[in-house]
């Protein structure tokens, strides 16, 4: 390159171009979602029931006395979660909510950073701002902030659990997932992966942390038994609002019970096969791919076949989607990303021209998104299984199974 060309056409690193484009856009999206949309709020308000429960807890009043016949957000955390949430009620409701939103927004950025590092990328690469942009483009992140929900902290606990589990820091891994159990046990299916990987020490703190917190909270609670008598049975019901599970859709749309049961069984069977294949062929060769994909299969299936699956749970599938950067990923296909669009998109499909069709699509998009994503992962692994049987190959993706790294 001549001297003239060097000044007229300076070379710029493509990664730097990516960061230059993504960071300002990402920062503006963070500010818009947190400072404007979240502070504005919406009709759905997950924070007020938590704040009122914390205030009642601190003042020794009843916590679990809500009317579950209404469709308003209800307080569903166990006494351990009430204990952890109680500092919120020290401040006035508005200040407390704004602080909660700000901390949640920061936690989501931290999650993007940790996922970047977990999958082997430097924080100076384009991947970090790209993840922040992707996070804040989704319905799950936007509504977590707008509704002011605890989900960001669950995602942080999940990622920290995965990172520490891979590093064999088992007791600390259990602490982080145990703290999420203390508030909402949505990550409980991941304990199956702990058992499969024989990292028994994780169970000590994963079970011990919420147990100890419940023991501490119990004597300070006015009505802890009502959580067991009233709230737990309600959690087992399949309600027909804000519920994207198969049973929730079945109740809302009036689908026959036999078809709902058949669909639940079908997705459970697909999950069993996927988990078996991942354990058999990837746990020893690529533990990160095994853990991230298996966690996504477990949680996605749990959202579908359980009694309650809410759209903003989809952020817990971010590690599964990040496996697209790994060799052997089960989401390197367009159906998987069409499913991701369904369960993550912030798009609204209400239509004035085609009202019934738009309403069905809007109310069902998360369900079909989860479904298509789980089917895509299952089919990807099934085709590999059939190819292996046909060719009698010793491993997957050209890698022969080897013994796992021993836990320390």
From TrEMBL:
<keyword id="KW-0808">Transferase</keyword>
<keyword id="KW-0812">Transmembrane</keyword>
<protein>
    <submittedName>
        <fullName>Arabinofuranan 3-O-arabinosyltransferase</fullName>
        <ecNumber>2.4.2.47</ecNumber>
    </submittedName>
</protein>
<feature type="transmembrane region" description="Helical">
    <location>
        <begin position="21"/>
        <end position="42"/>
    </location>
</feature>
<keyword id="KW-1003">Cell membrane</keyword>
<comment type="similarity">
    <text>Belongs to the glycosyltransferase 87 family.</text>
</comment>
<feature type="transmembrane region" description="Helical">
    <location>
        <begin position="141"/>
        <end position="165"/>
    </location>
</feature>
<feature type="transmembrane region" description="Helical">
    <location>
        <begin position="367"/>
        <end position="386"/>
    </location>
</feature>
<dbReference type="InterPro" id="IPR018584">
    <property type="entry name" value="GT87"/>
</dbReference>
<keyword id="KW-1133">Transmembrane helix</keyword>
<dbReference type="GO" id="GO:0016758">
    <property type="term" value="F:hexosyltransferase activity"/>
</dbReference>
<keyword id="KW-0472">Membrane</keyword>
<feature type="transmembrane region" description="Helical">
    <location>
        <begin position="258"/>
        <end position="279"/>
    </location>
</feature>
<feature type="transmembrane region" description="Helical">
    <location>
        <begin position="98"/>
        <end position="120"/>
    </location>
</feature>
<keyword id="KW-0328">Glycosyltransferase</keyword>
<dbReference type="GO" id="GO:0005886">
    <property type="term" value="C:plasma membrane"/>
</dbReference>
<feature type="transmembrane region" description="Helical">
    <location>
        <begin position="288"/>
        <end position="305"/>
    </location>
</feature>
<feature type="transmembrane region" description="Helical">
    <location>
        <begin position="171"/>
        <end position="195"/>
    </location>
</feature>
<dbReference type="Pfam" id="PF09594">
    <property type="entry name" value="GT87"/>
</dbReference>
<feature type="transmembrane region" description="Helical">
    <location>
        <begin position="202"/>
        <end position="220"/>
    </location>
</feature>
């Amino acid at each position: 390159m001549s001297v003239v060309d060097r000044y007229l056409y300076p070379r710029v690193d493509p990664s730097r171009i990516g960061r230059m484009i993504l960071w300002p856009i990402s920062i503006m999206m963070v500010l818009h979602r947190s400072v404007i949309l979240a502070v504005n709020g919406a009709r759905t308000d997950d924070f007020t029931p938590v704040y009122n429960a914390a205030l009642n807890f601190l003042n020794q009043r009843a916590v679990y006395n809500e009317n579950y016949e209404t469709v308003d957000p209800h307080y569903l955390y166990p006494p351990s979660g009430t204990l952890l949430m109680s500092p919120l009620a020290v401040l006035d409701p508005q200040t407390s909510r704004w602080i909660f939103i700000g901390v949640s927004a920061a936690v989501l950025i931290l999650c993007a950073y940790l996922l970047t590092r977990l999958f082997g990328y430097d924080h100076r690469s384009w991947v970090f701002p790209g993840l922040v942009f992707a996070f804040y483009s989704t319905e799950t992140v936007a509504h977590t902030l707008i509704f002011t929900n605890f989900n960001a902290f669950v995602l942080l606990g999940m990622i920290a659990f995965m990172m520490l589990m891979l590093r064999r820091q088992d007791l600390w891994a259990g602490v982080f997932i145990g703290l999420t159990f203390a508030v909402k046990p949505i990550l409980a299916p991941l304990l199956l992966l702990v058992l499969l990987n024989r990292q028994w020490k994780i169970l000590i703190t994963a079970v011990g942390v919420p147990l100890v917190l419940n023991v501490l909270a119990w004597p300070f609670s006015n009505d802890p038994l009502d959580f067991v008598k009233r709230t737990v049975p309600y959690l087992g019901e399949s309600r027909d609002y804000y519920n994207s599970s198969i049973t929730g859709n079945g109740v809302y749309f009036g689908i026959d019970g036999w078809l709902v049961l058949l669909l639940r069984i079908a997705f459970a069977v697909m999950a069993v096969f996927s988990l078996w294949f991942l354990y058999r062929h990837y746990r020893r060769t690529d533990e990160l791919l095994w853990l991230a994909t298996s966690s996504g299969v477990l949680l996605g299936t749990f959202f579908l076949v359980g009694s309650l699956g809410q759209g903003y749970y989809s952020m817990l599938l971010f590690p599964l989607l990040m496996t697209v950067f790994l060799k052997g990923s089960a989401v390197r296909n367009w159906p998987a990303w069409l499913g991701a669009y369904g369960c993550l998109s912030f798009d609204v499909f209400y239509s004035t021209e085609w009202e019934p069709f738009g309403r069905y699509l809007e109310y069902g998009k998360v369900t079909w998104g989860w479904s298509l994503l789980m089917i895509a992962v299952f089919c990807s692994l099934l085709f590999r299984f059939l190819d292996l049987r046909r060719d009698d190959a010793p491993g997957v993706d050209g890698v022969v199974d080897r013994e796992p790294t021993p836990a320390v």
